[in-house]
Write the structure tokens for this entry.
Amino acid sequence: MKHRMMRGGLSLIAMCLAFAGGWVTQRVLSRSYLQRGAETVVQRDFAPTLADARTPHADAKVSEPAMVKLYWHVFQLVQEEFVEPVDPAKLAHGSLQALLGSLNDPHTQYLSVEQRQRWMNALNGTVEGVGVLLGIVPRKQNGREQQLLQVIAVVPGSPAERAGLKPGDLITELNRKWIISEDPFYEVLELQRQHADRKQIREADQRARERLRNSLTLSEAIERLSRGAPAVENASGEPTASASSSAKRDQDPEPTPPAPNGSSSGESQKAGESSVLELTLKRAGQILQVKLQPSRTQVRPLEYSLLQQRYGYVRFNLLNSAAAKEFNSALQTLQRGNMRGLIIDLRGTAIGQQEASLQILQRLVSKRAVALVEYREGKSYRKRPLTLSQSPQPLKLPLAVLVDRGTYNVAELTALALRTGAKARLFGMPTAGDASQIALYKLSDGSGFTMTVGRYLSVDGTIFHQRGVQPDERVPEEPRMRGQPEGDPVLARALRWLSQVKEVKP
Amino acid sequence: MKQFGFRQRGGRALWQFILLIPVLISLYLLGFLSADLSASVSARPGESMGLLRETLHRLLQRNEAKLEPVEAFQSALSEIESHFYGPPPSIEKLTYTAIDGMLMALGDPYTRFMDPEAFRRMQEDTSGNFTGIGALLEDAPGGARVVRPLPNSPAIRTGLKAGDIIIAVDGKSLERISLDEAVRMIRGPRFTKVTLTIRREGEPNPLTITIQRDLVETPTVDVYLDDAENKIYRIWLQNFSEKAPQLLDRALNELKRDGARALILDLRTNPGGLLESAIEVASRFLPEDSLVVSIKGKKGFQEHRRTLPGRYRNLKIPMVVLINSSSASASEIVAGALRDNKVALLIGEPSYGKGLVQTVIPTSNNTAVAITTAKYLTPNGTDLNAKIVDGKRVGGLKPDIEVKQSEEWRPGDEDISRDLVLQKALQVLREKIQAHSPGESALRARLPVPTGSEPK
């Protein structure tokens, strides 16, 4: 009896333990699983003119969990109650678009899967579309808030370069469609405020509607300029920019040949019409018309040569990891040729990443701290040094850097760090003046977003945001043949300075 | 025997042990499952969603990883909070924006989020009453013109007249101030005073009038005798508030007493209101148990709303309904029901096209969300909701007789000669009256003899 009771009790205990064990296992498993899941939701990585920011907190928490709960609640309600079927991914995209857009920062935006892929491709040297880096500049004119589409830099070898686009150009129209740069109903509102005549208001309203009918939003315009293959126009003339169709187009990278002029065969003419983009530009108060055809441009990370009198010349088209690697072998070759000084050409260098810039600087500067980064912590702003990961191995050669208006972001940072850290002399024109430290995030579905996470300053605290990096010698003349001293006044000036400077003896 | 007995006992223990193992295993699994179940039931963001469910979910969607809104929002928000370089953002505002964006992605303008401010305003608006002076205003050069003071309002008691132009409120000029802003300046808490500077025709100098603000009942039903000779009455129903059916009854009693011979139900510029009120109104004009509207909800759920018993007035006089582009929602339900049940013709302009039912659900932090939970279909199955095609609204109710309204006309206009829609309605009804009572019209020699074709 005793035995039996004991046995019964033991098996009961064993049963309870088994149940509890199952419970605990689930909890432990799910916790570790969720933690892994949470980490993969957001992932920072590099992209054009991108910085690596600090490593993200693995278990980042929002300071007001009640707000996350509210969001969750609304999402649940929509899923349960909305009359039509709901696509959660679509809601997530719309939500992030609004969230990031509301920060009103030019580098903070949501990126679709294709857009993010385009960023990554550009960083690796494959640039789609017309080959320009575009920015949106806010401006105020007669009390009206404007948002203008500006060319920041032109990719070497791209259709845009062939068509003569220049950094600083404003793009006002695409295929004769107005790119919406201001509220077209501004005039209507103004008239209403003045209690103007009903008829007058109605006319202004009709004008605004007419203008809007033949227009493109800024993001539509950017999309069409940065897509490799042309947009397919449907019967109503509206671009079909759906994700699926552009994904299909990606698989067919062959650019459509330009349609012959005056061709009357309907099919080919239609394709030709939509593949050639017609831009209306504003440059220094002048209006220009430009036609170009988007295609895929392959950009070599860098080009180099040993010029006369044994001066080395390295031109960076990209500041990516490939460029950093090639830079090392370029230096070896140049040094075998007994180079006496080095010219770094950063004119038009707009695509790059902070990490690659640091790797390049490591071979040129003498100190580990190359710049400062200002960042926000809570409500205050702090600065921290941006340092090389390895100790510097400088060349100890006189150094000249060529810059212009297309020298952008990480390239500006590089030029400035060379001046402060390698006593380089800068030749050319003031740089673009964008010191934003930008991070690219990857979300679990392959889409992502970019966000400004800091601002670069020179190591001595000089601000170059919006001001640009000023050259030591201003050379406004444009080169006819870049990289050839005869046809490149900026290079010629740099060479002249190098020949005068005393050689630094190692 | 001993051996056997031992064996038997040992065999039983073994047997029991073997039996216990599957029991233990299944209990283990049961524990696992119940933990999983309880996790998914109490799922909150950041907590376990139930491992099995999650794993299954992930496995099924491995090939096309989809973004989950709450996760994506939470991670983006925390990144913004800790790393965004710009001015430190308000988490509340960012959340509201993110929710707005999420609802926008549904493509339905009526599913929207209300922050505390918007929610409070909505609650005030639907109560049907506000405090002010009770005058209908329109834009005018240099200020706001009084279209008409509302009956039984502070404005009419203090002698504000139609046509007066308000040029200043409490000494502040209305020059360069929008009508909306002017209205906001004039409205205020009950029993406070507002001083208006007005320009009145015939008076050389501006007048000042001080009016005590009071509760103003938003007008609901107005009755007009548009054609005294033919006794054609018009009932202008301006909204579908709770009081609308009762006020409509009063108006219909008046018509009966006066021996009205035709009725115009004017639903122009009526933005709608309560569904119950629309059913009540339709029940006055349609026999008991007629279909008024079908409500089509999620997953094929459908509800048929029919007219209520004991409400039918059986007027036995010809009737038309006027609609315009500002007739929406409940107005469209009533107009559609009267047309589809062949009680009235629709005259005017295509209606607005709002055939969606919203449910307002309060959420935390004094916010709320309005979600479109169903669609309205007319008895004939017409989807009332307009769609946006090429930037234009397409849909709504198409009138049987489409009349383009004169641009001078505005709602509540006293001068009916420029109301082209109403003129057409009167013409249609006159013909009907004559068709209904040829004997009487024959007695009146000066009236044209009816053609005999009765418009249906």
Notes: Chain B has three domains: 72-126, 132-216, 221-443. The longest strand of chain B covers residues 367-377. Residues 1-5, 41-49, 441-456 of chain B have pLDDT under 50 and may be disordered. Chain B touches chain A through 98 residues (CB under 8 Å).
